[in-house]
Predict the structure.
Amino acid sequence: MANRVRVGIAGTGSYLPERVVPNSEFEKTLDTSDEWIVQRTGIRERRFAAPDQATSDLSVIAAERALKQAGIAASELDLIVVGTLTPDFLLPSTACLIQDRLGAKNAAAFDCNAACTGFITALHTGEAFVAAGRAKRVLVIGAETLSRFVDMHDRTSCILFGDGAGATVLMPWEDCKQGEILDTRMGADGSGYEFIHMRGGGSRLPATAQTVAAGEHAIRLKGREVFRFAVTYMSDLIADLTKGYPKEELGLIVPHQVNRRIIDAALERLGMDDSKVIVNIQHYANTSAATVPIALDEAIHAGRLEKGKLCVLVAFGAGLTWGGTLLRW
Ligand code: UT7
């Protein structure tokens, strides 16, 4: 595109709530075991938000850290985009609550719901605004309090999820000279909408005493179907985004933390080992839209992203949706 502004990631930040919930807590109430959960998912523990913490509370802390690292004030932001499937309220958006709490008085704000692809979708939205010259400072957040939306009696889903938030600040690459977004991919296949869904509480099935009693407000998933889709899309997106680049230029892959076995199967399909992949699912489980920005922030702080190397972000989830980003750090 002519006159496209080059876009970079100027700062990142993340926040995990303090309460650590080990697998052993589920053994007390469910027919499950630490051994099953570790073997089938790689998860050992996750974080759950405190009763007075909602998605915007986790987001504000992550955002303040990202703004600090980017060296800008909240008042300099033009736009806030939040990827979440667990907003504080159905109305208004969580982005508006964050805008108020940060004092980002010059920023427009909205949420986007692409489930586990939420952060990548928000990132590509923010990137498009900066690339088109419509915004200069964009805060992009992926944040969830999934512990509020799982059925703690359903062993096939409740053990999988955790709470957390990650944030990034986008600006013209000329202003930050790091993390240039080179390429993006996004897609959807709504025919798979029933694979992961929450039936109750929307216009199709408004909340009633019956929907609550029937557990319609919790996340339900067809794990095996998602597993197959996830392995295929994770490996295809990585291969597609890195095509044409020499192998040694790839510095890091930041995959959606959905299941250790899914990550391993995707790497096997690509003929790669895990030396260039960040995995933290053992500590935080699946935090949906927050997994990628949390892992990216951790990788940067751990010094795993070398300047000049390529970095691939990749996620997929309910919808079905998928997305990938190629960065040069
Ligand atoms: O980000 C998108 C959202 N995430 C997902 O959609 C998750 C993707 N899928 C997965 O990660 C895996 O499919 C799971 C971890 C959900 C399940 O692993 P699996 O290897 O696909 O197991 P399965 O569903 O084939 O179940 C195997 C057995 C079943 O028992 P039977 O039918 O063989 O007797 C399940 O009932 O394991 C049983 N099972 C459990 N056992 C102990 C299911 N959950 C549990 C549990 N503890 N928590």
